[in-house]
Amino acid sequence: MMQAALGNTVSNYLTGSTSLDATLQEIESKYLATAKESGLL
Q1: Which tens digits make up the pLDDT trace of 7-40?
Q2: Distance (Å, whole) CA 32 – CA 39
Q3: C-beta of residue 32 within 8 angstroms of C-beta of residue 41
Q4: How many CB atoms lie within 10 A of CB 9?
Q5: DSSP character at residue 38
Q6: Is residue 19 left, alpha or beta, with left meaning phi > 0 and alpha meaning psi from -120 to 50?
Q7: Which residues, 6 or more positions from 9, have their beta carbon under 8 angstroms from its beta carbon?
Q8: Residue 33 near residue 4, CB atoms below 8 Å
Q9: pTM here?
Q10: Angle of helix 2-14 relative to helix 20-37, nearest 10 degrees?
Q11: What pLDDT was estimated at residue 21?
């Protein structure tokens, strides 16, 4: 799940497309959504 959340999100940060804060918020929201869909939360 974490790998999926990190996938494109980190590359956007590394290329300067998004800020660190925006990147972390996006990772968190993707992770939580995936965890809820999987029934872990």
Answers
A1: 879 999 999 999 999 999 999 999 999 999 999 9
A2: 10
A3: yes
A4: 22
A5: T
A6: beta
A7: 18, 23, 26, 27, 30
A8: no
A9: 0.79
A10: 160
A11: 96
